[in-house]
Amino acid sequence: ANRSFLRQIATKRFAFWCSIVSRRLLKKKTMVRRLALKSENPYSTDEFRIFRSAVKHNIQKGNNTYLWLTENNLFPNPK
Fold first, then answer.
1. Exposure string for 22-48, b = 16+ CB within 10 A, e = fewer
2. 3-class DSSP state of 1
3. Which domain of life is it from (predicted)?
4. What does the pLDDT read at residue 6?
């Protein structure tokens, strides 16, 4: 029973419209963030900023695509 509960938590971590590319970028961003917090290397913080902007862009793009597809689906099939 606990394993199914853990699977539900793992799948609910991301929004359902979030693409696999966005999920991978988020995981990389968290790894780079941890590295940047551990070391005072300016390269790590710059890399974190690059990943952060890429993640924001991908999430926004995925959300806009989902909303656009939902709106287009409503007009032909009103309920």
1. bbebbeebeebbeebeeeeeeebbebb
2. coil
3. Eukaryota
4. 47
Quickly list DSSP for 11-78: HTTS-TT--HHHHHHHHHHHHHHHHHHH---HHHHHHHHHHHHHHHHHHHHHHHHHHHHHHHHHTTS-
Tokens 């790894």 locate to: 31
> Which tens digits make up the pLDDT trace of 28-67?
999 999 988 888 888 888 999 999 999 999 999 988 998 8
Residue type, 76: P
Instruction: Tell me 2's DSSP state.
Output: H
pLDDT of residue 11: 55
Between CA 5 and CA 61 the distance in angstroms is 30
